[in-house]
């Protein structure tokens, strides 16, 4: 056997990726993803990358699939890690998410969305001028190259409200309320995120998501009550 062949890594070894490579693969869809988040998900048992003799983490394609599922579940469904872990144990990453649609989360499906400006307008069935109006009143960020599921949800909801006469300029109080809630959540979670502690930062991020879910639930319940009483 030639010497070069004897040094060639096996396919299973070659398929293992470094943490930097994993971040490079996932950051297009999850631009805020950091080492600390991966370390935290590992500490919570959501992924189990292999370790080299020197202690470096090596991720398989299966690890990446699990990471993508976990991150989408948190972003699009606001599922807490406990629910995600139960789902993975019961159904795996290839299952239909609607099988537990009654679990926490405002959406009914898990779909990755990455749209340019024209694509966002097309998917939401609005004119691009409407996107400019949403930018003007702070519902979308100006200058974005790509938009995700939350942006599409904002535009679609704003379109529905505009059709009955509630235009973005009338909805500024909703955006302001959301900003205040985000600030409130940040003030509670920030002390949990300790500099240099990857697991603590990851835990703080998930705690913030759980609080956000509770805020959404409370807001919806109060609004339904007020509509009923009114």
UniProtKB/TrEMBL annotation:
<dbReference type="InterPro" id="IPR047057">
    <property type="entry name" value="MerR_fam"/>
</dbReference>
<dbReference type="InterPro" id="IPR000551">
    <property type="entry name" value="MerR-type_HTH_dom"/>
</dbReference>
<protein>
    <submittedName>
        <fullName>Predicted transcriptional regulator</fullName>
    </submittedName>
</protein>
<dbReference type="GO" id="GO:0003700">
    <property type="term" value="F:DNA-binding transcription factor activity"/>
</dbReference>
<dbReference type="Pfam" id="PF13411">
    <property type="entry name" value="MerR_1"/>
</dbReference>
<dbReference type="GO" id="GO:0003677">
    <property type="term" value="F:DNA binding"/>
</dbReference>
<dbReference type="InterPro" id="IPR009061">
    <property type="entry name" value="DNA-bd_dom_put_sf"/>
</dbReference>
<keyword id="KW-0238">DNA-binding</keyword>
<feature type="domain" description="HTH merR-type">
    <location>
        <begin position="38"/>
        <end position="91"/>
    </location>
</feature>
């Amino acid at each position: 056997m030639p010497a070069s062949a004897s040094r060639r890594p096996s396919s299973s070894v070659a398929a293992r990726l470094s943490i930097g490579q994993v971040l490079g693969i996932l950051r297009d869809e999850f631009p805020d993803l950091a080492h600390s988040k991966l370390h935290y998900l590992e500490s919570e048992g959501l992924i189990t990358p292999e370790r080299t003799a020197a202690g470096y983490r090596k991720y398989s394609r299966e690890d990446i699939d699990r990471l993508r599922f976990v991150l989408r579940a948190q972003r699009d469904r606001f599922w807490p890690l406990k629910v995600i872990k139960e789902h993975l144990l019961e159904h795996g990453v290839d299952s239909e998410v609607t099988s537990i649609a009654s679990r926490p989360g405002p959406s009914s499906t898990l779909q990755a969305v990455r749209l340019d400006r024209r694509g966002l307008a097309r998917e939401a069935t609005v004119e691009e001028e409407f996107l400019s109006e949403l930018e003007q009143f702070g519902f979308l960020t100006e200058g974005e190259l790509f938009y995700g599921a939350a942006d599409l949800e904002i535009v679609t909801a704003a379109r529905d409200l505009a059709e009955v006469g509630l235009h973005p300029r009338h909805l500024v109080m909703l955006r302001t309320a959301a900003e205040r809630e985000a600030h409130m959540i940040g003030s509670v979670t920030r002390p949990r995120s300790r500099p240099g502690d990857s697991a603590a930062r990851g835990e703080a991020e998930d705690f913030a998501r759980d609080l956000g879910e509770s805020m959404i639930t409370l807001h919806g319940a109060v609004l339904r009550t007020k509509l009923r009483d009114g």
